[in-house]
């Protein structure tokens, strides 16, 4: 048996640490979001999104997306508004509370990336970014080809 970790684990470990740091910063700032809620929030378009589109982009069922939107609405992070293009539909839109979480998450992400830059150096970090960007070409189902 090899002591070498698989690529999936090697990709997951730094992602999980970044996620942990972002959620710690959010909690410190008073935002109590779950990872599932945050993933859905991150996919809401500036003008609002339909729940069915959020479900697809988050790769969850419509029921799961509706459940998460209900939670986020009760917590004050989103609101449902009429869709101006379809009177029967509703859009999910971010509230100012949700918007206030973004700079907190962005700052935590930047701090982690700065640590990675200091540890890896600019060449290795650029190579890592380039490699992951290249892998996205064959792994991201939402990438416009």
Task: List the keywords.
single chain, mainly alpha, 145 residues, globular, two-stranded antiparallel sheet, Arc Repressor Mutant, subunit A
Structural class: mainly alpha
Task: Please give the domain count.
Answer: 1
Largest sheet: 2 strands, antiparallel
Q: H/E element string?
A: HHHHEEHH
Strand content of the residues, in percent? Answer: 5-15%
**If you compute it from the alpha carbons, what radius of gyration comes out, rounded to the nearest whole angstrom?**
18 Å
Low-confidence stretches: none
The level 1 CATH classification is: Mainly Alpha
Q: What's the CATH architecture name?
A: Orthogonal Bundle
Share of helical residues: 55-70%
The CATH superfamily is known as Winged helix-like DNA-binding domain superfamily/Winged helix DNA-binding domain
Q: What do we call the CATH topology?
A: Arc Repressor Mutant, subunit A
| Cα end-to-end separation | 39 Å
Number of strands: 2
Per the principal axes of the C-alpha atoms, what is the gross shape?
A: globular
Strand order of the largest sheet: 1-2
The average pLDDT is: 93
Q: What's the helix count? A: 6
Could you explain the architecture of this structure?
Helix 2 packs across helix 4 and helix 5 (96-120) crosses helix 6 (122-139). This protein is mainly α and 145 residues long. The mean pLDDT is 93. The chain contains 6 helices and 2 strands; from the N terminus they run ααααββαα. The protein has one domain (15-138): Orthogonal Bundle (Arc Repressor Mutant, subunit A), CATH 1.10.10.
